């Protein structure tokens, strides 16, 4: 195992979550946590990144319909611990204004937990308890890791999904355009925040599926995709910000 495996497991987890395979996503994120803790230490940024992703998964599952209340409560507790651990590391390493600190704080706040500063918390992140994985699941996750790149090979950030699996015209255009790939990554981060903030998880997922199908069905050029990303970003930001309050009528007599 190398440090590159941490990122690889996180990517696998995101892909599994996007494909509706939460158990596979959990195994991948758990592996990223364990590799990060072993290679980089529990107070490392790499460990915090892995814990944040696992917390995001548990927080999303806690909002799923049909789950028993006891199961939802346990998922929330796991998400809270993971968010809190990652937040402490981000605060200590980056300060309050950094994007990672804000995302972890927003995730914790979405679960109804108070956000403490690094000075208020403990200086050493707690050992977050995570459920064990079956050995065969671990082996499968390890086998799914992509082959390491040759040293010095050029790499450019891709979109939030695996371009090797791109099939539709919009997906292929996104994979071949650096600007569209950047917008897709940014939208993925905003989506995670909006998912935590959504008051109706089922309605949020339905709208997301509808918007994705609309993009796949209608966008056949770069300009259409640019408009779609801008509109979708605005939609998700409105979910994050919540309904705007109408100003109270003035009581000043004329």
From TrEMBL:
InterPro entries given in the database record: Lysozyme_Inhibitor_LprI (IPR052755)
Protein's UniProt name: Lysozyme inhibitor LprI N-terminal domain-containing protein
Disordered: annotated segments: 115-165
Residue ranges with Low complexity bias: 122-131
GO cellular component: extracellular region
Signal peptide feature range: none
Coiled coil: none
Organism (species): Polaromonas hydrogenivorans
């Amino acid at each position: 195992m190398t440090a590159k495996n941490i990122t690889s497991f996180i990517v696998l987890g995101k892909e599994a979550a996007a494909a509706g395979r939460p158990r596979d996503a959990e195994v991948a994120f758990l592996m990223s946590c364990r590799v990060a803790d072993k290679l980089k230490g529990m107070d490392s940024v790499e460990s915090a990144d892995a814990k944040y992703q696992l917390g995001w998964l548990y927080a999303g599952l806690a909002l799923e319909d049909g789950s028993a209340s006891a199961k939802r409560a346990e998922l929330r507790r796991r998400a809270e611990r993971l968010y809190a651990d990652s937040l402490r590391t981000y605060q200590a390493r980056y300060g309050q204004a950094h994007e990672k600190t804000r995302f972890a704080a927003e995730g914790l706040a979405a679960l109804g937990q108070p956000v403490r500063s690094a000075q208020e918390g403990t200086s050493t992140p707690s050992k977050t308890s995570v459920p064990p994985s079956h050995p065969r699941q671990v082996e499968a996750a390890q086998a799914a890791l992509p082959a390491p790149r040759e040293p010095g090979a050029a790499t450019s950030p891709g979109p939030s999904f695996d371009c090797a699996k791109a099939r539709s015209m919009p997906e292929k255009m996104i994979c071949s355009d650096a600007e569209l790939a950047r917008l897709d990554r940014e939208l993925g981060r905003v989506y995670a925040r909006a998912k935590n903030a959504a008051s109706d998880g089922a309605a949020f997922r339905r709208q997301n599926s509808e918007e994705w199908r609309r993009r796949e069905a209608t966008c056949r050029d770069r300009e259409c995709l640019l408009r779609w990303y801008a509109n979708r970003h605005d939609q998700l930001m409105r979910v994050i910000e919540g309904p705007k309050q109408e100003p109270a009528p003035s009581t000043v007599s004329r």
